[in-house]
Amino acid sequence: MQLTLIKPDDWHLHLRDGDAMASVLPHSTKRFKRAIIMPNLKHPVTTVNMARAYRTRILAALPAGMDFEPLMTLYLTEDTPVQEIAHARGSGIIHGIKLYPAGVTTHSQAGVRRIEQIYPLLEAMQKHDLVLEVHGEVVDAQVDVFDRERVFVEKVLAPLHERYPALKLVLEHITTQTAVRFVCSAGPAVAATITPHHLLYNRNALFAGGLRPHYYCLPVLKRERDRQALIEAATSGDPKFFLGTDSAPHPKGAKESACGCAGIFSAHAAIELYAEAFEARHALDKLEAFASRNGAVFYGLQTNSETITLVQEDWQVPAEYPLGDNTVVPLRAGQIVHWQLIGT
Fold first, then answer.
1. How far is CA 148 from the centre of its chain?
2. What are the angstrom distances between the C-alpha of 227 and each of 184, 198, 288?
């Protein structure tokens, strides 16, 4: 069986920087025409000028002959000047601004601690029609790690949407029934991305025969009923849901350590893994909208004109891929993926 799709976009991608970025970038450019680039580098991308410089580095690292557009974002802090929002809107390169609760994930220490401190920034974003991209978890030791998304949605995001109903908002890498229900019931300004790993795995994968650090991500994998809710949302045809891999490479040693990093590298087989998830639901006819149309419409961009073709053919994922001077262990390392990208 072959499946031809409008070339997809990835609406949530971590590329890192320097040699590591050069190593992982070709995986995404083969599969995606555009990608929303996350700004949580070691030195967060907090200004338009920093984003412009990062974009230049990405373009310089592109494989020869590869046409790929990085869609840049800014890292929101409590100290972000309000005028930077207008600057971002007028830049032509900034497509969203990322809200990390401080300490919630990799390189998020400079994020937001008090949501009320950024109200003027959110008002400016609503005015200038800039998308707020949200990592939706509370940072609270009293809240169970498996409940942090649910509590964030109920205690932070729902009131925020009520306060700024016209603010375009993407709840990224959703993992729970609660998040699906919120997105479905919210106004047209609210959407969500879903990763391949949250569609394919539940939290049992973390503990299958022992502790599996390469299945550790934030938000963590959830219960099977949550995974089923994500599959239903992704394959429903609802334009509020679209593809965002959250592919996040870390060196093998940083994952396999006493305090391993959160993040799953999936760029090497992202669209193929989505095809698996949709095929299992007998919904391959819904994949193109999810992967290639819905996100572009939400972000106000044209859909792509190029296509990619997948063939239903098994291949074995390598145990590791290069990551600068290190290696990264990919999702499904050493195992079989049942769809393969051809013609690249």
1. 18
2. 16, 6, 20
Per-residue tokens: 298:
């939400």
Residue 344 has pLDDT above 70, yes or no: no
* Residue 151 and residue 104 in contact, taking contact as beta carbons nearer than 8 Å: no
Structure tokens at 257: 């350590």
Q: If 0-12 CB within 10 Å is exposed, 13-18 middle and 19+ buried, where does residue 159 land?
A: exposed
What count of other Cβ atoms lies within 10 Å of the Cβ of residue 116?
8
Q: Are 97 and 72 spatial neighbours (Cβ–Cβ below 8 Å)?
A: no
Give tens-digit pLDDT for 45-86: 999 999 999 999 999 999 998 999 999 999 999 999 999 999
Q: How far apart are the first and last CA of the chain?
A: 18
Q: Is 246 an active-site residue?
A: yes
pTM of the model as a whole = 0.97
Q: What is the reported pLDDT for 107?
A: 84
Average pLDDT of the chain is: 97
Q: What is the structure's pLDDT at 298?
A: 98
CB 93: neighbour CB atoms within 10 A?
15
Q: Across the strands, what pairs with 13?
A: 37, 247
36's tokens? 């929303």
Beta-bridge partner residues of 330: 265
Residue found by looking up tokens 């995404």 in the block? 28
Q: Which of 67, 127, 77 is nearest to 101 (CA)?
A: 77
Question: Which residue among 246, 285, 314, 325 is the active-site one?
Answer: 246
Average pLDDT value for residue range 286-311: 98
